[in-house]
Amino acid sequence: MKRRGVLALALVACTPAPLAGDSDGSTSTAFGPVEPGTSSAASTTTDPLDDAPAEIDLGVVADGFALLDLDEDGHIDLVTSAYTTAVQLLRGRGDGSFDAPIGLGDGFDSYASAVVGGDFDGDGARDLAVLWSAHLVLLRDPLHGPHEALHAPSAGVAAARGDADADGLDDLFLAGGNVLDRLHGDASGVFDLRPPLGLGGEPVDIVAADLDADGAVDIVTANVGTDDLSLLRGDGLGGFLPQTLLPVGDQPFAVAVADLDVDGTLDLVVLHVGGLVTLRGLGGSAFAAPHGIALPEHYSRHEASFAVCELDGDERPEIVVTRDFNGYGWLTRFEVAEDTRVIEPKVLRSGRGVGRIVCADLDGDDRDDLVFDAFRPGGSTLHLLRSSP
């Protein structure tokens, strides 16, 4: 019988701060605090999100979470990690709601900073990699267990996956300690650890994507210690070229990849302590100089998060930023101009402190929905905001 195990990984919890107004000095229309089962104050303009969020109360601190189709039934599921308790699965029903949470693994003794799904052993079933403090835990085929914890030391604080050597197995990339750790998937279920590669100072976020459209996975990390991004181009054989450093502003702590201008070339989005920055992709892994929008309050990686989503059905991405300030939180949407500049910020929600955010189409209407955590004494409540047609 094939052994099923767990190897140690982590989830990053982020918390946001207040947005005083729009980039032109005007004040955004704000919603009042949203309580369970109630509607927020009406906006003067129509936004693509329902007024009343459906609230999911896990009863535990949600350090991190991810949206993916774990059971491969065609519906997006929600996977969460929680301090000292468990990895939990909330199965998606395909209508924007979820089943009650079920435990996938427990007994971990620290905050998780990342959860990544992928088929790391080639058995056709989705596995979960959870970055937990100084350990990486791999839950192989977690829906069928049994769950055997295989702990591996790691200095990583952020994780991403991609098939770097084109062997059909997902590989895992960990950023932390100024290096990139590469764990290549193997049919035996044991990662093949490759020599680490150098990164900029104190990387805290990572994405893996084919930025230059050559069929090979590339890596980008956000480095708070050197105020830049590290770009490593993949060679398609599992190796990477030496890093290129891209200056982007003071202490960048979150990075994402998306085709913001819908021209077929991937662009970069970066959140740093002074604002939100976009870098337009020029092809061949080249990027234009960064465009930025200053945010009224300095953000830190413990106070903010963002997601690139498509909320209103126009097939152009928007950027949604969360911010927490002394327990009070904001959710702000930014439109993106044709040259990838960030414009027209609008506060979508305000209320209790807001942390990490993710988005996906949960109800099949071709519009992304938002899932984010709102803090409360003794725990964290996940909120769902569904886009309206």
Give the CATH level 1 class. Answer: Mainly Beta
The number of domains is 1
For this structure, what is the CATH homologous superfamily? YVTN repeat-like/Quinoprotein amine dehydrogenase
* Strand content range: over 45%
Query: What does the oligomeric state look like here?
Result: single chain
The whole-angstrom Rg is 20 Å
CATH topology type = Methylamine Dehydrogenase, Chain H
What's the helix count? Answer: 0
Low-confidence stretches: 1-46
Secondary structure: elements and pairs:
Blueprint: E1 5-6, E2 8-10, E3 54-57, E4 62-68, E5 77-82, E6 86-90, E7 102-106, E8 112-118, E9 127-132, E10 135-139, E11 148-149, E12 151-153, E13 158-162, E14 171-176, E15 179-184, E16 192-198, E17 203-209, E18 218-223, E19 228-232, E20 244-247, E21 252-258, E22 267-272, E23 275-279, E24 281-283, E25 286-287, E26 291-294, E27 304-309, E28 318-325, E29 328-336, E30 342-352, E31 354-360, E32 369-376, E33 379-385
Parallel strand pairs: 1-11, 2-9
Antiparallel strand pairs: 3-33, 4-5, 5-6, 6-7, 8-9, 9-10, 10-12, 13-14, 14-15, 15-16, 17-18, 18-19, 19-20, 21-22, 22-23, 23-26, 24-25, 27-28, 28-29, 29-30, 31-32, 32-33
